[in-house]
Amino acid sequence: MTFSPALEEKFARILTIYPPGRQRSAVVPMLLYAQDEIGHVSQEVIDEIAHRVGIAPMQVDEVIGYYSMLHRKPLGKYHVQVCTNICCLLVGGQSLLEHASKTLGIGNKQVTADGLFSLEEVECMGACSWAPAIQVNYDFHHKVTPERLDRLIEDIRKAQGTKQVS
Amino acid sequence: MADLVTFTIDGRQLQAPAGTLVINAAKKAGIEIPAFCYYDGLALQAACRMCLVEIEKMPKLQPSCTMPVAEGMVVHTDSEQVKGARKGMLEFLLTNHPLDCPVCDKGGECELQDMTFRYGAAESRFVEIKVHEDEKQWSPVVYYDPARCILCYRCVRICDEGLGVNALSIGNRGVHSEIIPNNSDHLNCDECGACIDICPVGALTSGAYRYKTRPWEMDHVGTICTHCSNGCKTTLGVRNGEIIRGNNRDRSGVNGEFLCVKGRYAFDFTKAPGRLETPLMRVNGKLQPVSWAQALAAVGQKFSEIKQRNGKFGIIGSNHTTNEENFYLQKFARHVLGTSNIDHHRTGDITTLMDALQGRENALATVGDLYTTKAALIVDNDLAQQQPLLAFQLRANWRHHKANVYAVTPGPVREDQYAKKIVRAAEGQEFEALESLRDQLQAEEELVILFGDPIKGDAVRKLVAFGDSLGKPVKYVCLVDYSNSRGAADMGLLPDLLPGYRSVRDAGLEPGLAYDEILNSSDLDALWVIGANPLSRHELVAANAFVVVQDLFLTETAQRADIVLPASSAYEKEGTVTNVCGEVQQLKRAARVMGSKPDLEIIGLISKEMKANIGIWKSSKVLNEIRAEVSSYRFPLIVVESGGAAATNPVNGPVPSTRSDLVQSARNNLFHSGTLGRHCSTLKAVVEAPGTIYGELVNEPEEALEPSTTQQ
Fold first, then answer.
1. ipTM of the assembly?
2. Which site among A45, B127, B162, B244 is 20 to 30 Å from B28 CA-CA?
3. Contact indicator for B31, B44 with CB cutoff of 8 Å
4. Considering its fold, how many domains does chain A have in total?
């Protein structure tokens, strides 16, 4: 398979920055960038990356299993990640997660029927000073309250022009 | 490694070469340090933390499996702290382990079970619900139960390092970690089952053995695998005369614990449907069951009659029968029937090699040599597919001793992964390729050359001349196909050679008809086939010949027979076989199959019917006869009788030239084994079958007549 020209260029560069014979070091960045472009890590992506760095697809699978930010299944267009580690937990991270679950109508690691949102409970994202924090795709949202979360979701829905799925 | 360091373990002052690991130094002194992930011959892992020991002046407990001994080191393996650590480690390992020992196949031979009894805590402090993951089937022969897995990585390492297949890996992380197969939900590998045997717990279990029995209910019979020529010892687990599993956990034999799919699983032909259980005789054009007495009397009578009128016999022997049977058969042919029309399917040109190496000592490499030689050269063979043990030995030699392996092959082979130099050359162009390797080979201290069947006749002499021209000690292995292909040649199943490669003229006989001449002879009166299936590939020209077949199954040849005598397989009889490297090993009877008789006994009974006396049909007696006649078989008997492998030497004198054009390997890969393979359901059930040679799919050999349609 081939990726977008920009990504292909990126991959070509990544493969040169490791010492000779260490091309498999490129697996993690390649997976992450491929996931950004495709939305998840498909079997096709795994086979392609394995082929490009010269290892068995199983060895790429191993890496994906280890890193929780790499997803084998398609996510929503907006991946809502709620932190429930200690700092966020103390100021309502858990209830924020439950609220998000209710608002979106999906549970942890599930995707809405329209494919717009997915929800995931995540570990610390390093935003403890502004807890509770959530991350939607790569955007941080600090000191999130249930109301702010609802507004955020509503804004995204409006921007997409879709109606609420209950 | 000559420098000895002095250190203390449990108050005992010990010495060991620098670099020795604490766990091994202790083991040598008789001090056991428990470990799961440490495994002799595999890369160090230090994953299980079971082998932690206390080393003075080190702040924390250290894993003894990765810690080399050092001068003045003081180690305690039995202190309170160490005991506590072991107990703690076992408690951790058991947090999610289901403790279903009463239904687990491994129960009774499980390392986790043993260690828990010995070092562990009887009760756990964990009250949480165990993390459970359901069992998975990865192939017809491999099942994985993640809940039982302790993640020692032994299976991952044996598959990657030992076999070079790299079919297993670890997926997910933390408490959800588990072994994953290479094809997402199933395996695509050699199906050798090494991962199952090496598993210290019951996480990997065998499709053939699951829930069949308990280890202590079986007799464990160490015999020699009856499939390829490598002569691996397989320890068959037998209950009530039935073989239930094959493995070699005691590491006896030339193979240590290595076995391929054939050695571990392909014993099911012994009870395959279609296995002959009674003699058959052609009555009114149809094969009908008869008694042994009737069948033998008929054979004896017909043979006597043909002999009396000076008729023409043709005898085709087997690549699977024992040395004793082969010897006895050629003796019967030459002394009773008075013919040298005897041959077998030749799968490697061992006779020309014997001639080229005449008078030399130490010119034939043993299986052990392949693990110690500094360099090896493979010519025209896909070793990992056709000669799995030899491939394993060379790979282990490269891993442990950095041996240089060279290969000249017509297509890709697994040795490409690590070989120092690979040259692709079509069959017939090997010698130009060899010249291109000359400088590199000349730089080696010693060399073992392994060659396949395209090297035959003059090419063998040319290869030996090439070896000699290097000016270095060179040993040879002539690769052959089956469990006793080598023994068939050694024992004179050849029209022009007696046992020990002497000319038949020495016995006052003229050379007889060779394999193709027997089948093409229009005036042949009798064809006697023992454990072979020549009519699957050739036609029998003599339409009226009286055909006697001794076999396990109603093969194409047996279907043409006038009398079929059901024979015992190698797993059902005693005797010796000679492997590809010329090492003689002993068979032990494991299974019992109703109705069949060992070929030795059948030949003896036929000679009795003919009122001929060629000695008693007892394998130990016949072996004595062989030893009297064949000098290279005069090895110390105790070696063979105690389950060892006795190496044989090349002959002293010249070997008369024989028909090397008949040499033709069947090119069996891991999933083929001639007639036996066709009746092994396991070999056919795996997804990899029919398998590859040189990376190309092998054609399935034509199916034998299905057992259900045979006339029984």
1. 0.81
2. B162
3. no
4. 2
